[in-house]
Recover the amino acids of this structure.
């Protein structure tokens, strides 16, 4: 990715708190979509991806993480992704305050979050009404 485009991409990304990311992993796959894939940058140059999919042959989910210099690694829980020492002994949880989320499920993060928040809010109201 050329430097100017990379700069724009990161500047237009979203800073999501750890609890917001945790909520996405908790809510999206079970109630909103079949998968969750989040692209984010650390240190403004390291492109990373993580995600969640349903297990096809068992109950539960598969969580995964990969980055430019780190091959795809699978995990059994969300907590495992964030506590694994993937970055020179540091866990993603420690580095998350510096993460910029650029894409969610293949769409710009801001756009996807806008639709998700609308749908999630609407679904919450409908379940209260029942």
């Amino acid at each position: 990715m050329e430097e100017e485009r990379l700069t724009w991409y990161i500047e237009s990304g979203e800073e999501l708190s750890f609890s917001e990311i945790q909520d996405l992993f908790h809510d999206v796959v079970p109630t909103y979509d079949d998968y969750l894939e989040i692209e984010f940058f650390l240190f403004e140059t390291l492109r990373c991806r993580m995600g969640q999919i349903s297990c096809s042959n068992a109950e539960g989910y598969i969580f995964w993480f990969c980055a430019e210099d780190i091959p795809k690694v699978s995990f059994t829980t969300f907590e495992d992704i964030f506590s694994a020492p993937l970055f020179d002994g540091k866990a993603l949880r420690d580095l998350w305050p510096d993460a910029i989320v650029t894409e969610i499920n293949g769409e710009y993060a801001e756009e996807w979050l806008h639709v998700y928040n609308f749908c999630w809010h609407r679904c919450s109201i409908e379940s209260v009404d029942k």
Remarks:
- Residues 104 and 113 are 8 Å apart (CA to CA).
- The longest strand covers residues 46-54.
